[in-house]
Amino acid sequence: MYNQFGSKESLIVEALEECGRRSMQSLKAFVDKSRSPRGKVRAIFRWHDEWFHRPGFEGCVFNNVAGECHDGNSEIRLVVLRYKRDREDYIASVLAQEGIASHKKLATQIMLLIEGATVMAYAAGRRDSAVKAWEAFEPSLT
After folding, report:
1. Cα–Cα–Cα angle for 23, 26, 29, nearest 5°?
2. For residues 81 and 86, what is the distance between their CA atoms, to the nearest angstrom?
3. Which residues cross the membrane (predicted)?
4. Which end of the chain has fewer beta carbons closer than 10 Å to its terminal beta carbon, N or C?
5. pLDDT: is 91 or 8 the higher one?
6. Chain segment 95-107, per-residue pLDDT in tens
7. Which helix (H) or strand (E) holds 128?
8. Which among 107, 114, 113 is positioned nearest to 91, based on CA atoms?
9. Where do the structural domains in the chain lie, given as residue ranges?
10. Reduced to 3 states, what is the DSSP secondary structure of residue 110?
11. 137 half-sphere exposure, CB direction, 13 A CA radius
């Protein structure tokens, strides 16, 4: 494999980038099925709920890899950071397209809730964490 990628870090970077592409495509397709503004926002949480309930769920690969990579300037950590920013930007775009005020602030709040829910679903076995995160966030939409 090192003939193809040159180094372990390059292999991990490529794997993360492919995982990120697939994850974002899946999330976008899921959200796009909803018609109402509230439905689109809720779909973000529902997508995560379905993910948490899949057999073999092992948390977020980006979080897991970042926890093992202690060099904050490595290409691996930069890929993780880009992925997280891209997700937050996507969420902000969903909110903005639906005419929701403070879309950037709310996107940050959603990311914090989803990230916490992901950790709770994996580390604490709380597979209902995305539902609980939605329940915490939903009043923000009124």
Report:
1. 150
2. 9
3. none
4. C
5. 91
6. 999 888 899 999 9
7. none
8. 107
9. 2-141
10. helix
11. 25
Report CA-CA distances (Å) from 99 to 41, 77, 94. Answer: 12, 33, 9
Q: How far apart are CA 74 and CA 65, in angstroms?
A: 12
Q: Does the reported pTM lie above 0.90?
A: yes
According to DSSP H, which parts of 6-138 are helical? 8-32, 37-52, 61-68, 75-97, 103-123, 129-137
Q: What confidence tier does 5 reach under pLDDT thresholds 50, 70, 90?
A: low
Read off the tokens for 22.
């697939």
- Tally of residues, the chain: 142
Average pLDDT over residues 83-96: 97
Q: Which of 134, 115, 24 is nearest to 67 (CA)?
A: 115
| Mean pLDDT, the chain, whole residue set | 94
What pLDDT is attached to residue 37?
A: 87
CA angle (77 as vertex; 69, 6 as ends), nearest 5: 80
The CATH class, in words, for 2-141 is: mainly alpha
Nearest alpha-carbon partner for 75 in 137, 140, 17: 17
